[in-house]
Amino acid sequence: MTETFSVPEMRTHHSNLQAVDSSTQDVVGRAQDTGIGDWKMYGIFASPIVCPILMLGDQLHGRTIDELGRVSATVTEGFGTTADLYDATEQSNVDLAKSITAELASMREATGR
Predict the structure, then answer these.
(1) Is there a contact between 47 and 40 (Cβ–Cβ < 8 Å)?
(2) pLDDT value of residue 30
(3) How confident is the model at residue 1 (pLDDT cuts 50, 70, 90)?
(4) Distance between CA atoms of 83 and 100, rounded to whole angstroms?
(5) In angstroms, what CA-CA distances link 37 with 18, 33, 41, 95?
(6) What are the boundaries of each domain within the chain?
(7) Which has the higher per-residue pLDDT, 57 or 94?
(8) Cα–Cα distance between 97 and 93 in angstroms, integer?
(9) What's the superkingdom here (predicted)?
């Protein structure tokens, strides 16, 4: 079984990840700007029960959204770094192959073969 990969396909995938990450960061920013609202919204009888529950949910939601933003940014950055490393490795392999080819050609000339 032969596994292959394409650096241009990795770059395309990284670009797609960047678009998703951008949207995710937008959601994170918008979520940070929201809240449960004023206690008057829930009334004098319901607010002592509803507000603490909603505040807890809002805190958990906020942390979850923040973590989602961090994960998205980390995955996107990591994939970009991986694509850079693959690209550098491929270029190094090409350069090495050219060097070996040139050395072999030089040896052929020296031996007359």
Answers:
(1) yes
(2) 83
(3) low
(4) 26
(5) 33, 11, 7, 62
(6) 29-109
(7) 94
(8) 6
(9) Bacteria
pLDDT in tens, 33-85: 777 767 677 777 777 777 787 788 888 888 888 999 999 999 999 999 999 99
Residues 49, 43: Cα–Cα separation, whole Å = 10
Q: Which of 58, 77, 65 is nearest to 14 (CA)?
A: 77
Does the pLDDT value for residue 20 go beyond 70? yes
User: Could you write out the DSSP letters of every residue in 74-104?
Assistant: HHHHHHHHHHHHHHHHHHHHHHHHHHHHHHH
Token digits of residue 45: 């009888």
Contact (Cβ atoms closer than 8 angstroms) between residue 32 and residue 62: yes
CA angle 20, 74, 92 (to 5 degrees): 100
What tokens were used for 68?
A: 């989602």
Burial letters 1-28, b for 16+ CB under 10 A, else e = eeeeeeeeebbeebeebeeebeebeeeb
